[in-house]
Write a structure and sequence with these properties.
Blueprint: H1 2-18, H2 25-57, H3 60-71, H4 73-84, H5 89-106, H6 110-128, H7 135-175, H8 177-193, H9 198-204, H10 209-229, H11 231-245, H12 251-256, H13 262-278, H14 298-310, H15 316-343
Helix pairs in contact: 2-3, 2-4, 2-9, 2-14, 4-5, 4-6, 5-6, 5-7, 6-7, 6-9, 7-8, 7-10, 8-9, 8-10, 8-13, 10-11, 10-13, 10-15, 13-15
């Protein structure tokens, strides 16, 4: 009996390996969430930008392109997740229906519903993939059936929960803009540099308003901060790859010397409350923009989109605040902190060097 019990776990493990199913935090929270953010970027985010641009310059075709792109956000996220989970083709394409159902039924918290349900449906589809002679029927049936049924059963609750938590953060930020400005800015900024997706987190929580503005500040502090602080090591290439790409490139160096992270974190703790208390900066564009920072200038563009959506009269003060929070202050403050930390030996030559 004991030998039989020992063989069963071994068989299950071998079966999961054959199906390329890896039950781990990395696979589900890092790989899947990062891919989901890419799906969001290639649909909702770029669609919002195109629609806004078209409305501003009066080009109808850009508006229509944007609307179509925004309309496939759910399918785009689900397919991206399935791709990250290395799903076979029939499972991958089945996620179009699953993503649509999950995002629609999840409401404001749709992205979180898509993340959870697409992972489950993808793995179930992988389990049956190519196990029968009628795979072309069985695999889509299991993938779509399990995903849509799950969406009908739990997506509304997931969406409401995520939306409520996001609203709680936004309410707390409105109530205590200084303290929450610091917390949101620091936490979302850290998430941006970690190998998880700050954009997906902000989208899942529908993080907008003053909390979204603080999140933008934190992300910009990390990206622009690391780009400027490491300029002596990485020159123009590093400036662009981090300032317009991602500060995640520094993660390997952070593991080696965590103290290099202190400067941009301190900067985010300063720019966050400045955004909420002084410049009253809100993110009322797409929630995903709150977690993008200066990646493709998506964060600042999202704030601008919010201005347009709110129909406010854009003043010089608005522009000054946006430029200071997103670019100027992150560059200056992190550079100053960096000099101090280099002088006291916390940052040594080469600690910020990227292999780019």
């Amino acid at each position: 009996m004991s030998e039989t019990n020992e063989k069963k776990p071994g068989k299950v493990k071998a079966f999961l390996e054959r199906k390329n199913i890896e039950i781990s935090w990395k696979r589900y929270l890092i790989d899947a969430m990062g891919a989901m953010a890419s799906g969001l970027f290639a649909s909702l985010l770029i669609g919002t930008i195109l629609k806004t641009l078209g409305e501003q310059i009066g080009v109808k075709v850009l508006v229509e392109m944007g609307v179509y792109a925004m309309g496939v956000a759910g399918p785009a996220m689900a397919v991206a997740i399935a791709y990250a989970l290395k799903a076979p083709n029939l499972v991958l394409f089945s996620m179009l229906a699953v993503g649509s159902a999950s995002n629609t039924l999840g409401g404001a918290g749709g992205p979180l519903a898509v993340l959870i349900i697409a992972i489950v449906a993808t793995e179930l589809g992988k389990l049956v993939s190519k196990e029968t002679k009628i795979d072309i029927l069985v695999t889509p049936l299991v993938s779509i059936g399990s995903g849509v049924l799950l969406a009908m059963a739990i997506a509304p609750s997931i969406g409401k929960g995520a939306s409520s938590f996001g609203k709680l953060i936004m309410w707390a930020t409105d109530l205590q803009p200084f303290l929450m400005g610091i917390l949101v800015s620091v936490i979302v900024g850290i998430a941006l540099t970690l190998p998880i997706s700050s954009a997906a987190i902000c989208a899942a929580l529908s993080l907008t308003g003053f909390a979204g503005g603080a999140a933008v500040a934190g992300c910009c502090a990390q990206m622009v901060g690391f780009a400027v602080m490491s300029y002596r090591e990485n020159k123009v290439g590093g400036l662009i790859s981090q300032g317009l790409g991602t500060s995640m490139l520094q993660m390997g160096n952070i593991v080696k010397n965590p103290r290099i992270w202190i400067a941009p974190i301190l900067t985010s703790a300063i720019t966050g409350p400045l955004a909420t208390c002084v410049f009253k900066m809100k993110m009322n564009g797409a929630a995903i923009s709150s977690g993008m920072g200066t990646c493709g200038l998506v964060g600042p563009l999202g704030v601008y989109t919010g201005w347009i959506n709110d129909g406010i009269k854009i003043t010089a003060f608005n522009w000054i605040g946006l430029i200071l929070i997103c670019i100027v202050l992150p560059a200056i403050l992190t550079w100053i902190f960096g000099i101090i930390f280099r002088k006291i030996g916390w940052i040594k030559e080469g600690d910020l060097k990227l292999d780019v």
